[in-house]
């Protein structure tokens, strides 16, 4: 039956390592007991109730969503023109610019966070939310440029010329041809950016201020002081949200398109 | 719209005139000229073909006519007016690309209507003319499909419909048939010709396929190294290539130097292979030769010989009606004067 026993075993081990903790977390979240132990002591939804009743989680969730939405929008607003310029313009040093847009991915987020912390929060006395939005925009920009640009890189560069030849000026060409051609890429970039922002810890950790925290940071704070399954319940909710987003993405554009390049 | 009487130039004016046009790339020190000092007229109503090997500047020339590439010097006149720095959207052109370049997010109808919508034409008129154009290429029944649902040949017909729908002053065809398979390519030639005839449009085609060029064009422009080598009607150019490059590109294989003629070329069917003692008959050049190889082709044989020509030995290909020669045989080759095509420039006798 199994023709490649070694590979099969390897795959099984990999899946266990990847999914094992998730399964344990699921178990812990539904426990009826009051400690983070596995296997769960009976089944209940009490920790979900507790999580939804805990005000700091609700506040930080709202902050997270606001920050994720705003920074995604900003990243796209900056990233789409950048992607067009990179793929369609005759910019000198295209390669260098392309790598520059990738640099936030290469620079450790803590370093980026610290730099932003010093420059923006301390230097400009900005609010924590503004700093978070700015920091996350920087974080998400490479995704916007790369993923939105991928659909452009795959499209025929003659499309714009065809539009120009048919009498459309540069602006009309951009809105009636370039942007629609980029649509699947933009959608993918938006979803990917949103999820990335929502789950980010290192950058947010440095940019949160008094009374303002994102959900992952608030969760981190929580586990430092308490040891009950509330965090597990929140994690399961976050996981469910991410899976839902992934499924929607799959339905709309297909994962291969999003992560194919 | 630029198709009304006020902009239409006099009937004799060429639709496109290139006046000493050059296009150089790179810095002044190491500049590479894709097109050098090209002057060319595209006659009204003609099917003009720019023919040449890749890198000869034919595509750059077409892209300069379209306005996608700006000449580094010289002038481009469209309908008699200087259009050198006019952006493509204001040139009233219709362009068909090798890659079709159909808008993937639009139906065929919207693709074809695109150019009409940019021209502020009333909506019913847009739909009517888009429908007409699709009808012209026989794809009305697929008007609501997207390009991805079509075969390559169908896509290229839509691209053609999209280009002619705007009634351009010139139809620019950038190797439109190169992405199609061999059989379809030959079919599409006639389709292309039919559409051009029915619409009465002036067309400029870029191709590297000499058969396509000979079949389609009434004005043939042969280019090499960014320069014009020869132009004229195919019936004038083909029997009388001006130089060795043109001759080779049109499929001539025999190059030799004949005393009193200089460098010449001659087609295999115009040579005569004489057996020992056979009289030449008529006037012509007689060369001693030795048979190198014989290829049997049914109704005739293709005989390759090494002939003693004016400046050494030349390899000639001769069409011979019989099957009575064998490799190694000593023969004489008769070349009638009237079939010798004199070539300008240094047409050597070296083998290719």
Automatic annotation (TrEMBL), chain B:
List GO terms (cellular component aspect).
ATP-binding cassette (ABC) transporter complex
The UniProt keyword set, sorted, is: ATP-binding, Nucleotide-binding, Transport
Under Enzyme Commission nomenclature, its number is 7.6.2.9
UniProt keyword Cell wall biogenesis/degradation, yes or no:
no
ABC transporter domain span:
16-250
The record ties this protein, via SUPFAM superfamilies, to: MOP-like, P-loop containing nucleoside triphosphate hydrolases
Domain of life from the UniProt record: Bacteria
Gene Ontology MF annotations:
ABC-type quaternary ammonium compound transporting activity; ATP binding; ATP hydrolysis activity
Q: Does the keyword Nucleotide-binding apply?
A: yes
* PANTHER family assigned to the protein according to its UniProt record, in alphabetical order: SPERMIDINE/PUTRESCINE IMPORT ATP-BINDING PROTEIN POTA, SPERMIDINE_PUTRESCINE IMPORT ATP-BINDING PROTEIN POTA
Protein name as it appears in the record = ABC-type quaternary amine transporter
Q: Which organism is it from?
A: Marinitenerispora sediminis
